[in-house]
Amino acid sequence: MSDFNPKQQINSVSSKIVAGLERISEAYKVLLWEKAKQLGLSPIQIQILIFVNYHAIDLCNVSHLAKEFNVTKPTISDAIRVLLKKGFILKAYPSTDSRSYAVQLTESGKEMVNETEHFAAPIKHQFETLSESNQNNLYKSIYQLIFKLNQVGILSVQRTCFGCRFYEKQGSQSYCNLLEQQLKESDIRIDCNEFELKAV
């Protein structure tokens, strides 16, 4: 029986969670589309601008962006072409291969990020009404789910502590060998700038 069948959800908490996450994903899409329509951009263009603003240039090329957002390279290339035309980004060539380029924000691109990056604020506000304990428990479930979805190939990119070469489990305690400190549950990161993939 489908997880989206209300009868299935009656006796299955996991089905209720799946249905609930689907509704939350709809909320993100609605908020992103509203912002996109206001500014004459597409949702993926907004996502690219925000991502480029906060990540290293070696992650800001067509190949990686396609993996990051689980879309095709032509979709990313089309979005980049529009952003270049609008003057929000420019091409950069971090390697000697002139065929391979990354993108960087222009000043107007940075201004556009300021206009768009808080599109999910209404959702964050609702999380902030939860107790600290409930927030921490929810966050733990989320970062574990992201890692597991990556492990089974559904999410192609993750930069959580669990997949990082600096992460170590010491008994029941998490430890970061880069920071040289133990990690509380709330210290575990979903998107770490120092992330380096653990060798298999």
From TrEMBL:
Keywords: DNA-binding, Transcription, Transcription regulation. Pfam families: MarR_2. The keyword Transcription regulation applies. It comes from the Bacteria. This is MarR family winged helix-turn-helix transcriptional regulator. Residues 14-151 form the HTH marR-type domain. The keyword Nucleotidyltransferase does not apply. InterPro entries: HTH_MarR-typ, WH-like_DNA-bd_sf, WH_DNA-bd_sf.
